[in-house]
Amino acid sequence: MAPFSIVKIPQNGPLLVYQKHRKEADIVLLLSNLSTSEIREVAGRARGIDYIISSESGDREKIGDTHLLFSSPKGEKLGFLAVKLPSMKTSSGSILLGDDVPDDQEIRGILNQFYRTVAQDRGFQRGGKLRSLNGNRYIGSEECRSCHADEYEQWSQTPHAGAYRTLLRRNRYFYPDCLICHTTGFGYETGYQIGDERSRKLAGVGCESCHGPGKRHVFNPTKENISGKLNPKACLRCHTPDHSPGFDRLEDLLWKEVDHSRKKVSFDQLIAQHSRGTLKPQLELFVMSFCPFGLEAERRLIPKVRKYLDKVDFKIYFIAERDEKAKGDELPFRSLHGKAEVVEDIRQVVIQRIFPEKFFDYLLCRAGNLREPWVKCARKVGIDVMRVNDVMESGEGLRWFEENIKRGNELGIRGSPTLLLNGRRISVWRVAGRGGGGLCE
Question: What is the mean pLDDT of residues 249-256?
Fold first, then answer.
């Protein structure tokens, strides 16, 4: 007798059919998409079924001699049934589909197609138009900054501030069930609106997600028109067992990360709390190569970043703009400290492209020897000077430099150094440590 065989039984077939197969098989396994109550009824009435595997969600249970195995909510776990041959002993359990388990490409394709459908059909995107704000409005976290600078700075370093970025990476930024917890005020008329550029200030879990809409408080700052101190239990509105399994056991630990009284976070702590999951935190430093404060920022940050190159997406951009008045062979760019700075900016972009493994060493050397010829540092760290010059003279360096400064110009960044974490500005000196610094602008 073959150890395994598959028999398809009509949904409304007689229960006696299971008893028939019980006589012909060592194990009878029933795959079902019936409701949980119907499955329990089948297990209670039928005889000879060893396992029922259901598409419904639930915990494992046993009715009589029949084991009931259920799926996990939202595909968080993968159930398994193991049969040991030739003894036919069985065991079952589930595998947590964490970040270390790669996606099944066929299933990922189905999900991506679903999200594309949502993105193209406005009918799927309705989040409701709730009105129960009593005339109050959502205004965005930037409005809170002028009075609550320390609290804003602490919030901007948390994963909450970049929560919308998770949806962008996972192609779920049109899905209402996700937006309600990854944006501010979604579902309300003045809250986040899908596809509306004016509401980008409400992308992410902002101040008003926890403290309530802030228009009235901005115009009349009193304790009565804002939710001040919060209970950690408020987090459970989004961090449900389905969305954040095990969150209740880590509640006290994670509450410390969002507590505004936590004024200073070390670089190690910052990276740790932003490196959970599959997304790397995006860290962008904008500098001018002759700015003493930018050089100091590089001296402090680069050694820290080097420890986490596998966990952080770190990029350096330069602050400059096109010089429309340039004539002939003049450099078509300008920067705060003149053409000599532009030349060094371009040189560093070229080195970053063709000698990426030497780039940080070169920056650290130049930060302490800016008055010396650049070739001194280049040769010290093993950079081919002639190759750098050839690329710069070919015009390729100018093209790369124009690509590099585009990011800062689009964001309107003028001060060196400026540090962005997941697209949101944070204090470079708080992250880098050892006191504050100035700004070239």
Answer: 72
**Checking phi first, is residue 384 left (phi over 0); if not, alpha (psi -120 to 50) or beta?**
beta
Contacts 24+ apart (CB under 8 A), 3-9: 3/85, 3/86, 3/88
Handedness of CA 58, 61, 66, 69 (dihedral sign): positive
State whether residue 109 is helix, strand or coil.
helix
Contact in structure between 348 and 377 (CB atoms under 8 Å)? no
Torsion sign over Cα 158, 164, 167, 171 = negative
- Binning pLDDT at 50, 70 and 90, where does residue 434 land? low
Backbone angles phi, psi at 273, to 5 degrees: -80, -15
0.70 exceeded by pTM: no
Q: How far apart are CA 308 and CA 312, in angstroms?
A: 6
Q: What is the 3-state secondary structure (H, E, C) of 242-285?
A: CCCCCHHHCHHHHHHHHCCCCCCCCHHHHHHHHCCCCCCCEEEE
Q: Is residue 1 predicted with pLDDT exceeding 50? A: no
Strands 282-287 and 313-318: parallel
DSSP percent split of the chain into helix, strand, coil, nearest 5: 45, 15, 40
Q: What single string gives the DSSP state of each residue in 28-89?
A: -EEEE-S-HHHHHHHHHH--S--EEEEEEE---EEETTEEEEEEPGGG-EEEEEEEETTTTE
Q: What is the chain's mean pLDDT, rounded? A: 83
More confident residue, 130 or 201: 201
3 state DSSP class of 91? strand
According to DSSP, the residues that pair with 425 across neighbouring strands are 420
